[in-house]
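Section 3.1: Structural characterization of target chains.
Under the original work plan, the team committed to producing a structural model for every single-chain target entering the pipeline before any wet-lab resources were allocated. The record below documents one such target. The sequence was received from the expression subgroup and is listed exactly as submitted; it comprises 158 residues.
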Amino acid sequence: MPRERGQKVVATNRKARHDYTIEDTYEAGIVLTGTEVKSLREGRASLVDGYAFIDGGEMWLDSVHIPEYTEGTWNNHAPRRTRKLLLHKQEIVKISHKTKEGGYTLVPLQIYFADGRAKVEIAVAKGKREYDKRQALRERQDKREAARAIATRRNLGD
């Protein structure tokens, strides 16, 4: 029985939702060393440059920065090493078919602990063009203005 319950988010990749259109998301386990787990439990990680790839029927996470554990000794981990992701074979095959279509990439959205186990949320995503980003920002701004107008009208008592 796990000591911890629930979900504790360590790091999120907010820029991914701005730069990519998210198609599917998958939850994967991560193969970590002891000092990496301790560093994550302190809430230290960065997904900014991270990406995932499939090699030899296995999925790998690359360029995710988990800083060295401050209390670690000479056997501390490398901060940007390639880490293996744990997924079912059927999921890996499904993801590989999707990424081979072209234009799709694998982006980590967040790292978190679920019931004491380190997990990463991977998204199959397609890159947005510059005008798509501007259009999404404009839509968000329009929704915000509409909600603000409704709230002020409601507060006035009309």
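The first strand starts at residue 7 and ends at 12.
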